[in-house]
Amino acid sequence: MVHSLSVLGSTGSIGRQSLAAAAHLGIPVAAIAAQRSIALLEQQARQFRPRLVAVYDEAAAGALRTALADTDTRVVSGPEGLAEAAALPDADCVVTAVSGSVGLLPTLAAIDCGKRIALANKETLVCAGELVMARAKEKCAEIVPVDSEHSAIFQSLGGVLRSPAMHRILLTASGGPFRGLTKAETYHKTPAEALRHPNWSMGAKITVDSATMMNKGLEFIEAMHLFGAAPAQITVLVHPESVVHSAVEFIDGSVVAQMAVPDMGLPIQYALTFPDRAPSLCAPLDLFAAGALHFERPDLENTPCLALAMDAAQRGGVAPCVLSAANEAAVGLFLKESIPFGKISECVAAALDSIRFTGHPTLEDILECDEAARTFVLKDFS
Ligand code: MG
User: Fold this and answer.
1) How far is residue 256's CA from residue 253's CA, in Å, rounded to a whole number?
2) 52-100 pLDDT, tens per residue?
3) In a domain, 267, yes or no
4) 324 C-alpha to center of ligand 1: Å?
5) DSSP 121-172
6) Structural domain contains residue 134
7) pTM score over 0.90
8) What is the CA(296)–ligand 1 centre distance, in A?
């Protein structure tokens, strides 16, 4: 079990559940960080008494500094503040739960300090997987996945990221709220409809990504990097009940799966207690109530985002970074109702066609491509 935590993205869904797990397990919190939700940050700071709070937004940081003037908590701001929270020596584990590619630099900062990364920010691995995994190896920083599918794969592998006995990964997907619908039927779906996920309660960006199935595409790329898998070694299965959270098929034909209720509290807690387990706040899984489990092939024709992601996974280089950044920008436009649901995949496809391809990108190339893809989407589609 880890000794002290920093939680980056503490006001989001994963961040709040990470703090709840820390309270449940009695793990002290050294630092919290968020973009600008200062009312909740103040509440969290008063409850967990961290040494440091990082607020990305400068103006919000100023307001929080005033609000917390009667406490010992120091308030910092901007990207430097986020990096400081990631590198704070008091914490031996950093939960990276910020949404989007803004998580990349603080994750690298935490890796450089050799901390355990409870990785909840999938965009980090999607954009810069090779770089991040190589840096973690070099700095002996442990990466424990928080994403439920990757936690399931990690658990199925017996608590390791690499196994020569792994034949393939069976990556499960709920299919989201629009499973079974055609592209034409979902084209004009509204944010309210896309945000109605049947099984999981999550933040807005990832819930829209679940509806487009881009989330599964990003997880496909995340799994490649985490587990050293070739694209051909990953099979996506639509599993509407969300009971099997993913599985590993070994070279002898054995399939080991991890099952549980769909509750992020469990993979979050496991990333903190690993290699041990502790009683959790999650409900036990009732297989009698589940009754039957179903598995289907994904419908790539009607989930173009998943198809684009699998294609970007094959191409490698900056393609996954362009995919992820363009998607982030397009989902932002969709949530503001500036573009229809069906346009998200069109924005991503157009960005992939337009941004110059680089095969072996440096960190600078990645940050540049990320910016270029966002600018491209915002310029052409808003
Ligand atoms: Mg997931």
Assistant:
1) 10
2) 999 999 999 999 999 999 999 999 999 999 999 999 999 999 999 998 8
3) no
4) 15
5) -HHHHHHHHHHHHHHHHHTT--EEE-SHHHHHHHHHTTS-S--TTEEEEEEE
6) yes
7) yes
8) 18
